[in-house]
UniProtKB/TrEMBL annotation:
The lineage of its organism: Bacteria, Pseudomonadati, Pseudomonadota, Gammaproteobacteria, Moraxellales. Coiled coil: none annotated. GO terms for cellular component: cytoplasm. InterPro entries: His_Pase_superF_clade-1, His_PPase_superfam, PGM_Phosphatase. The active site is at H11, E83. Substrate binds at R59. GO terms for molecular function: phosphatase activity. This is Alpha-ribazole phosphatase. It comes from the Bacteria. Pfam families: His_Phos_1 (PF00300).
Amino acid sequence: MAKLRLDLLRHGETTLGHTLRGWLDDELTEQGWSQMQATVQHHLNQKNWDVVVSSPLQRCRLFAEKLSNDLQRPLFINEYLKEMYFGDWEGISTQTIYETLPELLANFWQFPTQYHAPNGESLVEFHQRVFNGFQQIAEYMRQHHYQSALVVTHGGVIKLLSCLAQQQGLDNLLRMSAELGQLHSFRLSHQPAQLSFEKVE
């Protein structure tokens, strides 16, 4: 079974950073861009990425486009790597949600497998979508004989992979760390219809 190295970079600070952004296509702030740039510079010497992969949302994509150009590496945009879709909560601060729907928000934080944002994506749907995305990435890398990728993505995606890699129940998803602009490394083992992740410290 082939093992691929994936370094997941969470986007930096964005203009709507105090809200649940989900699929909203907000921009990076200057600070957000700097956070990502500093992380990449720090790791550049010991990482030799074959390809840059990105979520289509501009808080990830614009940085990924520039980086792939700077490093002269191919860029693969994957639609499945978007953040969880928060439905009616998109663009709303957690404080506002807490003031109007405190019980639902508390249940969502504690039991995300059972509760989700009104008209939003369930965790089962999110899990399946992200899994499909990484299957596509693994297949793409296999076809091109790539061994390592930098994946520019979102907090929810990183937290999901951390859960899977540590064999934690998905209700622990929101307790996983995924700081803005930081790198999280995984090894991905893949064969048809089967993926497994390991966390790399």
